[in-house]
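Amino acids appear as letters; backbone shape is given numerically. Here is one record.
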Amino acid sequence: MDLGSLKKAPRSGKNTKRIGRGQASGTGGTAGRGHKGQRSRSGSKKRSWFEGGQMPIQRRLPKFGFHSYGKISYQVVNVGSLDKIGKESEINPEILQKAGLVKKTDHPIKLLGNGDLKGKINVKIHAISKSAKEKIEKSGGSVTLL
């Protein structure tokens, strides 16, 4: 057996339609292109992004980014960086701003659990991660959400 002797299995494929080979073929005359119109003529081209005259997708879509109005962007502070504050018993956004850990007090602040805590502290903050809450409570402190 060699490649020259290979044949298709019986009834395995359909013959391709021979277009433009006379009226008896079923696609003679206009060769399946119909009468008149853009695609009926030889040499016709349509760019792949052409949408038939409707407003193209690249003109309908916004060009510069997307802003989700429901998104809350937090200022992030880690538990390990609370040691920079010193011997404060209660930590709130104003104290975090004085220590230079956040820039603004009117933007929400989230406390994350990266780092270790060395003392008992009470925290008043907008949001907190599960691991940060566990570390504060393990050291004997408490968390209050604003």
